[in-house]
Description:
A: alpha+beta, CATH 2.40.50.140, 2 domains, six-stranded mixed beta sheet, five-stranded antiparallel beta sheet, 34% strand, B: mainly alpha, MetI-like fold, 11 helices, 2 strands
Amino acid sequence: MANHETGGLAANQDLPLLRIRGLGVRFGTFNAINPLDLDVRDGEFLTILGPSGSGKTTLLRAIAGFQAPSEGGIEFDGRDIADMPINRRPFNTVFQDYALFPHMTVRENVSFGLRVRGTGRKRLNDRVDSALGIVGLEELGARYPSQLSGGQQQRTALARAMICEPRLILLDEPLAALDAALRRQMQNFLKSVQRQSGITFLFVTHDQSEATTMSDRICVMRSGSIEQIGTPRDLYYRPKSKFVASFFGASNIIEPCEVIDARNDVTSVRTAVGTFAVAGPAPEGGSGLALAVRPEAFGIGNGKPVNQVELTVVSVSFIGSETITELRHRDASLEFKMKTRSDPAASPPAPGSVLTVGFDPAECALVSGDRG
Amino acid sequence: MKRLRLLDVSLASVSFLVYLALYLPILLVFVLSFFSMRRGRVRWDTFSFEWYARLFSNESLGEALLNSIIVGVTAIIAATVIATLAALHVNARPSSRSARMLEYVIFLPFLLPPIITGLSLLIYFREIGVSRGLATIIVGHAVFVLAIIYRIILTRLNALSRSLVEAAQDLGASRLQTFRFIILPNLRMPLLTAGILAFALSFDETMITLFLSGTDGTLPVRLYAMMRVGFTPEINALITLILGFSIVLTVVFAFAWRRSGGTDNNRITRI
């Protein structure tokens, strides 16, 4: 137990599968990726999440070898691979457009990685059969990519990337082209394949809910830098910056706010609309802070004795199981959004009426404001 | 309704006249290769294969035809190799200086008047002391058809998704394997198209050939020489044969195109 932390074997297990140090990519004078560090642990599902232009795809391409880094190092399993040619790198990629070879059947596509390595026919056929089995395409081996649906193409691309039994698979927004229903289905599928195979997945997406459902850890990127890395729960409940907070749906940002007291793991902050208690210690370097509150953290009136504020109703929209109420504070021109469970018995508040709403200290977070 | 019909009829007659103007002379040549003609009238009682027989016994024409084929095939093979390499380079690094220069240089011999190309090559060969012959004609034709082959191949390469090449390399393929298994299969059709087109261009190229041929002429050069001394009906027979060959080539081409059409549809995966 104690040596789990300190023993030689454990130290080996803690060694990340992929270790990125000071990796930067510049296009001319434009920094696509500012030098950054990232560790990918063996067997995890790590998602790089960010809006378009945040450098997430460039980072993935640099790892795959399609984009030469301007600086920094990449280690895979303790070996430096920064200068290794693409075809020697010991991991494979699922492309955004799938990049299936149009003149080859599904079987030929999937077997390609083995074929260029000169694998014998018997072994090759067995491996292809098993890969097609995993992705559920046993019946479609003779089809051409153009004869497949989007989901089937996606599965083919995955089987092709898995055929050489890599320890790491890079996935570049592979679900972006699918419609919503199919995307959810493929999310579950990808996650289950990842869990069963134990292959490390490094997944790129701009879709926060996709990242949250699938990932063990999420690395949020913004303009070429890593904003925050953590589990989906970390990022959801403990965002470090305003950017991460709003990316994960905490759209009510109250700023500026100033720490006036911090004890017993509760921090008190003063803002333009009142004084609030926030669970957890105050962040270090406590200037330029903002208070982020999720819309669903708000509740009307009596149930919530702390963190109360009087707000004027601007509009109410009923969206089925939930009701979204837009609110405004009378002094500061701050706007709030509240999401509550729709109540069949009560009539919604009328626009113009004043409500006392409150939120739990555990359901808000102190975050850093905009940098730069 | 009625006016539309009138339009249809007039359009149809105009197209008929156009086709007639295009094909009547060819038809005439075909007919005349079997019959004799006197005072502007075909003598239907003279049907024979005489002109074909004479054609085949005409050694100089046979030799010219053979020369044409040798020149065409050799020039196309040489030009295809060079054009493919050039297209691969330009496709891989489209914004490099060498690529931009290649784009201009490769088209020059095709765009310049043939007389300039022919003359400059002639002067060049004389200066370096190469005597005129089949080899010089081959060089001339290769330079001439290079641009067409290059353009057709480059167009196809540019249409290929770059991620296909990346995917192949990602899966462990070397550059050579990527070319062989991914690029080349996708170039089959454009290579065939380019080859046929280039052969057709080479086959009737006259001006450059005129400057570069010594005693061995290609067919058009030989025909040109024959016309100067007088028109013989063998020429009709020859033209008919060439026409037949062209038709066969077109049919084969169309057939190959249709057959590959099935796989051509596969080239861009549905997204």
